[in-house]
Amino acid sequence: MAPEMFMTRDIDHTVDIYALGILLYELLGGQIPRKQHPPFQAVNPQPLPSLSQQRPELPAAIDMIIWKATAYQPHRRYQSARHLAQDLRALFVAPDDQYTVYRSLYHYKPAHRKPVSSALQNTSRKPPDQKRRSAPRSTEPAPPMPPRRRKRRHTGFLLLWLLLLLGLCSGIAFLSLIAAVSAKTTSHPAHAVIATYFDSLQQHNYQAAYHCLSPVYQKDHPLDDFIRGFTSTRDQHYEINNTSYQSPRQVTIEITLTATEVLTNGRTYRAVYIWTGTLQCNARDQWEILAIQQHLIARAEIAA
Q: What's the rounded mean pLDDT across residues 220-236?
């Protein structure tokens, strides 16, 4: 059960996303996470144990999917089961041409008609002097019956369970789509600054990203210190979780940031951060980043 179900009645469809994440962990790991604790003590803000370390044959990206689906706070989880299903398909579902279906061949003997008995041929309601003529029998054999269709057999018990899980995700995605139709989604001008900032960091154009910061932030963080903070980052991707409006000229944006990092020990890690930025509109009606807070949620080692 999702943590909020033990503490409040204000729940939404993300509790089903949480349940899907736990079910996925059980299917792939073969065990229940934190099963040694009773349900009310299993509410833990820390992420679940890494599944790829327990089963090395699984890709490391499965940890990212499970951690996001079972996030402690509802707004940090997948907001749509369709996105969860897309990530699972990209990892586990192979193209159709990689599977072979074997069919058996069936042979049928022609079915012959039995001769009509003479008693039935001579039986008639007409007078006895009038004999009834029987229709000539066909010597052609009856057409063979079509072969029975056999059920397709999938290669692998795990794939069957994953397809069942994807079907359940599709049903929840339909309910999420109905709930999202009535929601009002408006794009704020501050989002364009966020896009420019992270796109510049992804392209290692730190000068352009530095120009998105306000003069107050630049005064406390020189350019050299700013660039030095990204020396271990190879690539990063972001997703906007929430936008809070403090005033007409100031907003706070919360982002889930996934980064690939190479630390000083030479190993490569996949890390998940919660990035919170405060943006304001200056006197020239231009939005800029005023303050940044970043908290590490999880980090797992991946293959280089």
A: 91
User: What does the pLDDT look like over 102-138, one tens digit per residue?
Assistant: 222 233 344 444 444 444 444 445 555 555 555 566 5
CA atoms within 13 A on the CB side of 238: 21
Q: Can you tell me the mean pLDDT for 174-202? A: 74
146-151 long-range contacts (CB < 8 A, ≥24 apart) are: 147/105, 147/106, 148/106, 150/103, 150/104
104 falls within a domain: no
Distance of CA 58 to the CA centre of its chain: 16
Distance from C-alpha of 30 to C-alpha of 239, rounded to nearest angstrom: 31
Quick: pLDDT tens for 54-103.
Answer: 888 888 888 888 888 888 888 888 888 888 888 888 877 644 333 222 22
Residues 63 and 87 in one domain: yes
Our count of domains for the chain comes to 2
Which of these, 7, 20, 5, lies nearest to 77 by C-alpha position?
A: 20
Domain of 81 in residue numbering reads as 1-97+155-184
Q: What is the CATH number of the domain that holds 89?
A: 1.10.510.10
User: 20: which residues sit within 8 A by CB, 6+ positions away?
Assistant: 69, 81, 84, 165, 168, 169, 172
Q: Is 163 found in the same domain as 45? A: yes
d(CA 10, CA 180): 18
